[in-house]
Amino acid sequence: MDDVVQMAGALDPRSGWSATHCSVAKALDVVSTRTAFLLLREAFYGTTRFDDFAERIGASEPVTSARLRELVDAGLLVKEPYKEPGQRTRQRYVLTEMGTDLFPTVVALMQWGDRWTNDGGYVHLEHTGCGGRIHAELRCEHGHPVTPGETELHRNRAA
């Protein structure tokens, strides 16, 4: 059990409390489907138009529409009007700050998938500034890398 989070303080023993206000569960309520994650991936890749989202993730228009609406309602994307010459005004979808904050999650899923599911992946991310490959890594506020076995779960003071 060296690779598990340790319960600390009021949270130990684990059987003494319930994760009723779990941030993981709340986050999954917002981004709860494969389609939603793929739409976010495409938004990070610069996709903004409805038709492009639907085509690039291979979803039907009704499913794409429903998931985009959910992401907008949740505050991860906003709709902005745009107009191409000679065309009617349409809406494009743009990441909000809240949506952009999910980038490390998408990178972590990509990294995990590259390692465990698909022979190293088809694409990778590089830092524009130096060309180094980007990876997700957990660190404490003092900069130390951490593993689950080096982690304690504490109750927030405000809880």
TrEMBL record:
Residues 22-121 form the HTH hxlR-type domain. It comes from the Bacteria. One of its GO terms (molecular function) is DNA binding. The keyword Signal does not apply. InterPro entries: HTH_HxlR, WH-like_DNA-bd_sf, WH_DNA-bd_sf. This is Helix-turn-helix transcriptional regulator. PANTHER family: TRANSCRIPTIONAL REGULATOR, MARR FAMILY (PTHR33204), TRANSCRIPTIONAL REGULATORY PROTEIN (PTHR33204:SF18). Keywords: DNA-binding, Transcription, Transcription regulation. The keyword Phosphoprotein does not apply.
